[in-house]
Amino acid sequence: MKDKTITIKDVAKIAGVSVSTVSRALNNYSDINQETKEKIFSVVKELGYKPNNIARSLSSSRTFRLGMLVEDNEGTGRLNPLVLEMIIGFKNTSSKLGYETVLLSTTSDIQRNEKLQKIFKEKQLDGMFIMGLKMTDQYYDELSNIDKPCVLLDVNINNPNVACIGVDNVRGSFLAVEHLIKSGHKKIGFINGHKDAYVSYERLDGYFLAHSRYKLPVDNSLIENADFTDEGAQEAVKRLLQRHKDITAIFCASDLMATGAIYSLTNCGYSVPEDISVVGFDDIHLAECIVPRLTTIRQDAKKIGTSAASLLVNLVQGQHMGRIVIEPELIVRESTKRI
Amino acid sequence: MKDKTITIKDVAKIAGVSVSTVSRALNNYSDINQETKEKIFSVVKELGYKPNNIARSLSSSRTFRLGMLVEDNEGTGRLNPLVLEMIIGFKNTSSKLGYETVLLSTTSDIQRNEKLQKIFKEKQLDGMFIMGLKMTDQYYDELSNIDKPCVLLDVNINNPNVACIGVDNVRGSFLAVEHLIKSGHKKIGFINGHKDAYVSYERLDGYFLAHSRYKLPVDNSLIENADFTDEGAQEAVKRLLQRHKDITAIFCASDLMATGAIYSLTNCGYSVPEDISVVGFDDIHLAECIVPRLTTIRQDAKKIGTSAASLLVNLVQGQHMGRIVIEPELIVRESTKRI
DNA sequence: CTGAAAGCGCTTACAG
DNA sequence: CTGAAAGCGCTTACAG
Questions:
Q1: CB neighbours of B307 closer than 8 A, spacing ≥ 6?
Q2: Which of A31, A197, A281, B41 is the most exposed place for a label (fewest CB within 10 A)?
Q3: Best CA proximity match to B78, nearest among A83, A132, A257
Q4: B19 CB below 7 A from strand D atoms
């Protein structure tokens, strides 16, 4: 009738050592006889013993649990499909590294002024991967002096407990605009994302950089903000068209906005890329299915997730590896043409 | 120097009762004096005490943890964006119900013949929400007699521990085809999803049903399979076009495939919807941004996730609520026209 | 209705 | 290098 869960006790008994010794072997302590260690591991294998993480957490101060905070903006908008890939990538490698992944969402976990510190405690997390942080978020400031390991997507904060990961947004944006300039475009509209997103500043920089590198003056009336929504992009396109009849290209800070822009352009009687070239950002799966296939800047979302997990686990284990930058890639398809 | 974590002991001391009594009050046991209960709760509030879930799990047999298994097919294909919405919906309501959500993925958790039973134990789960189950999955059979609560997306299995949730796929498919028939189409191609997916059978039934309801003969050579990929859909379209020059409409079992189909049609010189109408399935966000805006069948993904969580929590608490069916909705946009 | 005590499966000083 | 023992924060029979 005994519960068939095998515990550290069973292993100890069969291996003929004490529970403490088994625990030490399992945790890779150095002060242990090689032979006993081997015997223990063979018993572990034979019995198929798996340590109970819950018990482990209760007695140690570590929990082997990592939180992933995703901004779900309460059903307002749908979510960027890249987020799912990041989540999966993160989950798979943190799992490989022996950590469990707990999903956190802004609506259900970070309500009215909750401190991150509190979430850490309540959810018993060793570390946290934060996606979609905006500079206006109430916990933005807290991150400057938080004492728990955090990895931030696309945002850089100066704190030894915090590391940053993301695509090189300046470079990505630069590549997009450079591609257009090299294709002969001179009047290039830019539809940027949410103004409180860190990435928006960087992508704007890339836009400026490309212009200055190629000695093209920047006209600020060519720059629009559209909050990363397709509706926003549609409106932005109309404003752009009104102000500049001679515009020949538009760079959008997301594929979703690019899609919205193309829709709007088509509706206004322009054809893409014959009349106006469009470049996106992200390289979501649909970018290569729609008509015209979208020229865009690829972010390797799975890799971002994967690296974020390694980065965070390292941080949890006391090693700060610094900021990880993923190279963006220009993918030329059919929505841009040389003029 | 005392650790400032407040425990059940602190509450007991201040309330002037024993630890056991506090525990009973917190767990809503009935055999407890109303007054003591109130006193305890006021102390709990005053101290801001939160029970430690880990300790709770260790001593009871329940863990208050729910697993979400998402099929990530190891980077082969990208994932359906609806999955993310389901995940968030599920997470938010299970969180509201006091359960924590642990993400599980097929590649990292269900490798080579692992039993679900084992995952349950290792991950210490009270229940599991399984998405993207295929009939060829190695754990498909195990589900017929599993003794742990599971909620399955889109698959029906007869076992009191298993409940099913999903859109009415027969109905959804029927609505799509009916819309085409009512618009005057008589030769309607059908590009179905993965042949081992349960939904594919149901969506095929819907296609048949609409034909028989409207006394239209079914021509099997109008039916193709494309594994839910856009490349597959592009090929399928070409085969369809070869066999049937007079085809006027195509129904695709996903928006992604519909997008691929439209691309292929455009490339072959057909215009959508002028020459050929196309209907999708899912209503992903991009369905309303692309040119032409996609007529499709909406699955309310967030609602599916939300309801799945309630269903699972009920199951965990011993109550089987039966199968939940979400109504699909026909969304008519610009990719179909009357002929 | 309430308390004392054992126990969940592990880790971690502390001796030796 | 190893063992005995206390303890992590809770729950749960068992008495009363």
A1: B165, B324, B326
A2: A31
A3: A83
A4: yes
Cα B16 → chain centroid:
48
Residue A252, SS3 per DSSP: strand
- Measured between alpha carbons, how far is A246 from B328 in angstroms, rounded to an integer? 45
Cα–Cα distances in angstroms (integers) from residue A316 to residues A40, A64, A88, A118, B32, in the given order: 28, 9, 20, 18, 43
Q: How far apart are CA B198 and CA B196, in angstroms?
A: 6
Strand C: which residues 275-314 of B lie within 7 A (CB)?
none
Question: CB–CB of B101/B66 below 8 Å?
Answer: yes
CATH number among 3.40.190.10, 3.40.50.300, 2.40.160.20, 3.40.50.2300, domain A65-168+301-326: 3.40.50.2300
Domain B8-51 part of CATH 3.30.70.20: no
d(CA A301, CA A81): 9
Using CB atoms, which residue from B57, B101, B263 is nearest to A291? B263
Mind listing the pLDDT tens digit of every residue in chain A (339 residues)? 334 688 999 999 899 998 999 998 988 887 788 888 888 889 898 888 888 888 888 888 788 899 999 887 655 446 788 999 999 999 999 988 888 898 888 877 766 567 888 888 888 899 999 998 888 888 888 999 898 899 999 999 999 999 999 999 999 999 999 999 999 999 999 999 988 888 999 999 999 999 999 999 999 999 999 999 999 999 999 999 999 999 999 999 999 999 999 999 999 999 999 999 999 999 999 999 999 999 999 999 999 999 999 999 999 888 888 899 999 999 999 999 999
Interface test with A, best of B53, B90, B289 (most A CBs within 10 A): B289
User: What's the CATH code, domain B65-167+301-327?
Assistant: 3.40.50.2300
Domains B8-51 and B65-167+301-327 share a fold: no
- Ramachandran quadrant class, A25 (left: phi over 0; alpha: psi -120 to 50; beta: rest): alpha
